[in-house]
Specification:
about 40% helix; about 290 residues; 8-stranded parallel β-barrel; globular; two-stranded antiparallel ribbon; 12 strands; 10 helices
């Protein structure tokens, strides 16, 4: 796997975080990520501010509204605008959620796709069409979910089947695995190790909220807990180091606190060389 970016990243959010990042260029941040829907139609001063960031950092886009598993027709007009946006800002990769979020109107949430063979074929076809329009591979994220309607197959089998039939990449969200393992009572490490590591494009790590002892809500509004950090260690041990981004959408602390978590990602990556870096060193050693 050749990764689109490297190292540890941070999601760019408007407000105090954006203001702070304009005043400095933290060495901890190797790449950034945005939801394209929040920036795609912006011009003027805010558009210029965003362009300044994409000229300073490698960027990835993580979509919110493509509705890849929804019943409504795929929004191909949006995809054409997205294609232009990705090219304008030289975005390194585009990812979306393995879920749906609209049905005759936006639902403002990520809804679970039924884990069925029919859904595999349906979603995979929409991913292939998206890749055809964008003329590039996309990554699909394993999502957190709180109900499993019409479940005919295990979550891990559903994800693997979609990735295989669509021939797309995986955005590996470590926190989502942990959240789902608590809410749906399965072994997080076994689930993680069953994923196709060769399809990982990059990863996410985030915090969550404990609603109850057996119910966790994926909020991206708290610090990453030790159990999730440990799961990231296992992911690196299993698949090698892959680029990983810290998600923080709510209760955003001062920049220094965010950078400490971004730096934690880097510290966990440091002892392990990415596979393509090892290959580069080996090629250099034999003069090829």
């Amino acid at each position: 796997m050749t990764y689109p970016v490297h190292g540890a990243g941070l999601g760019l959010r408007r407000g105090d975080l954006m203001n702070s990042l304009e005043e400095q260029t933290p060495v901890q941040i190797a790449f950034m990520e945005v939801a394209p829907e929040n920036w795609i139609s912006l011009g003027g001063r805010l558009g210029k501010r965003f362009r300044a960031f994409t000229e300073r950092y490698p960027f990835i886009c993580h979509g919110l509204s493509l509705n890849i598993g929804g019943p409504a027709p795929l929004d191909e007009i949006f995809l054409q605008h997205l294609k232009q946006f990705l090219a304008t800002h030289q975005i390194r990769a585009y990812s979306e959620h393995l879920s749906y979020c609209a049905d005759d109107g936006h639902l403002y949430d990520l809804m679970p796709i039924p884990f069925t063979e029919e859904a595999v074929h349906y979603v995979a076809a929409r991913i292939r069409r998206t890749q055809d329009i964008l003329e590039q591979r996309i990554a699909i994220e394993n999502v957190s979910y709180y109900a499993a309607p019409a479940q005919e197959m295990a979550e891990i089998d559903f994800i693997k089947a979609v990735l295989d039939e669509a021939d797309c990449d995986l955005l590996l969200d470590v926190n989502n695995i942990y959240v789902n393992s608590i809410n749906h009572r399965y072994d997080a490490q076994a689930f993680l190790k069953a994923l196709p590591g060769e399809r990982i494009a990059y990863g996410h790590i985030a915090g969550h909220y404990n609603e109850a002892q057996d119910l966790i809500v994926d909020t991206h509004g708290a610090n990453v807990i030790e159990s999730v950090w440990h799961l990231l260690d296992i992911a690196y041990d299993t698949f090698g180091v892959f680029p990983t981004l810290l998600e923080r959408d709510f209760n955003i602390p001062p920049l220094a606190a965010l950078l400490s978590e971004v730096e934690m990602i880097s510290k966990k990556q440091a002892p392990l060389q990415p596979r393509e870096q090892i290959a580069h060193v080996q090629r250099a050693a034999i003069g090829t």
